[in-house]
Write a structure and sequence with these properties.
With 317 residues, the chain is of the alpha/beta class. 27% of the residues lie in helices and 24% in strands. The chain has 9 helices and 13 strands.
């Protein structure tokens, strides 16, 4: 069981186990999960598809009741959604008939916040999320990355104590995703919110998190917990890829088995192409995929740390 709550504990999950009822009987989504998230901490959770990551997040949000176990937020039993917990989903949840400014302020408007206070909060978040100059644009006039910025800002605007994020950047292109990750890191540093962030990307989890949790295949349980050292220079991809300590964490064997559908059981395998010629490259945020992909065209090279460049790509065991 999780330790009793201390004054610094924001979320405590104790003995959580969940089953879904189907026409063929009960399906176990997660094994027993115990988890504590401290106030102001950014915790990332990585694991294979279908292991129960989103189920755990929805239970913390109060969208589903655990089959077994309890979840507490600030010492109070979670029995449903609450204003102290905000959620950012992978699917966009912004209103197409509202401008950027009015989307971000929507929750504040519903809560009856005065217009002056609402405008002050919205202006600050627009600046923090890089949306300056787009205040009066509608969602259909924005790129996918900018729409996701709006969704993030709208959640922050309601000022919840806890932000729950379910793969919020999965649907955007690789370069935009890097920018959004850096902006999220700056936003969290400025607001000191407690964040629980789900991802399939090991690099994303290490880059953003103060602490990283690794989940097994379904029924998921937490098999590893990794502390990520703070970085005095801040969080940006240039310093991250040049930091051997960060790269060492991303290449740990704890992540093996997280991505069985990708054709590789080790996330440190990376590949790249340059001018149609196959060659090895150091890790780079624009060419590094924590969830490995088959190279295309065939001239691309596999890179496995410590292995020969001529080694064929092995099948996942």
């Amino acid at each position: 069981m999780a330790d009793p709550m201390s004054s610094s504990d924001k979320i405590v999950v104790s003995g959580f186990r969940h089953f879904f009822t189907t026409a063929d009987g009960d399906v176990q989504a997660t094994d027993k999960v115990d988890l504590t998230i401290r106030s102001g901490e950014f915790v990332t959770l990585v694991g294979p598809s279908g292991c129960g990551k989103t189920t755990l997040l929805k239970a913390i949000a109060g969208f589903i009741r655990p089959t077994e176990g309890t979840i507490h937020c600030d010492g109070k039993l979670v029995q449903g959604p609450g204003r102290e917990r905000g959620v950012v989903f992978q699917e966009l949840a912004i209103l197409p008939w509202r401008t950027v400014r009015r989307n971000i302020g929507h929750g504040l408007e519903i809560a009856g916040v005065s217009r002056a206070e609402r405008d002050k909060t919205v202006r600050r978040l627009i600046e923090l999320t890089g949306l300056t100059g787009f205040e009066e644009r509608y969602p259909h006039e924005l790129s996918g990355g900018m729409r996701q910025r709006v969704a993030v800002a709208r959640t922050w605007a309601a000022d919840p104590d806890v932000i729950l994020m379910d793969e919020p950047f999965a649907a955007v292109d690789a370069m935009t995703r890097l920018t959004l990750q850096e902006e999220l890191a700056r936003l969290c540093a400025a607001t000191r919110k407690t964040v629980f962030f789900i991802t399939h990307s090991v690099d994303e989890a290490v880059f953003l998190g103060d602490r990283l949790l690794v989940m097994t295949r379904r029924p998921g349980r937490i098999k590893a917990e990794i502390a990520v050292p703070g970085r005095a220079s801040g969080r940006d991809w240039e310093s991250f890829t040049a930091d051997p300590e960060m790269q060492g964490i991303a290449d740990r064997r704890d992540f093996c088995g997280c991505f069985p559908a990708s054709g590789c059981c080790c996330p440190s395998r990376r590949w790249s192409c340059s001018g149609g010629r196959s060659r090895l490259r150091p890790a780079s945020p624009t060419r590094c995929w924590s969830r490995p992909r088959r190279p295309s065209p065939p001239s691309c090279a596999w890179w496995i740390p410590g292995c020969s460049p001529n080694m064929p790509a092995p099948a996942c065991g």
